[in-house]
Amino acid sequence: MLLRGDGLSGFALRIPLTWLSGVRVDRHLAQVLWGGLLIGILGSTGCTANVQSVQRSPVDAAVQVQGKVSRHAPLLGKTAYELEDATGKIWVVSKDTPPAIGAEVSIRGIVRHQPNELERSLPFTYLEQQ
Known about the structure:
Oligomer: single chain
């Protein structure tokens, strides 16, 4: 069994490392790869993923996430707003006017990773709203 839990808000992912048949793979890398596969499947079926799983998704994955808008930030020619759910926070970049602070929204976006100048092993992950 790959998934167990009570829906997407509390799913647990078990990695069957025996499927890798002799290939040494870091457990974290395996979780990221399987998480990306899961997000790709969920994104294509219209299911909503939580922020924590989106942050582990591969670049260019199409996802849908739901949460509460916690703050805004102006960008040159665009806007950004922070979306928060029970699992974490993620920034969303959009060409549209951002939702009001405190609004509950569900958005579809593309996962993007930006290099983190302070900690290179932890890229900054955000969504580009579609």
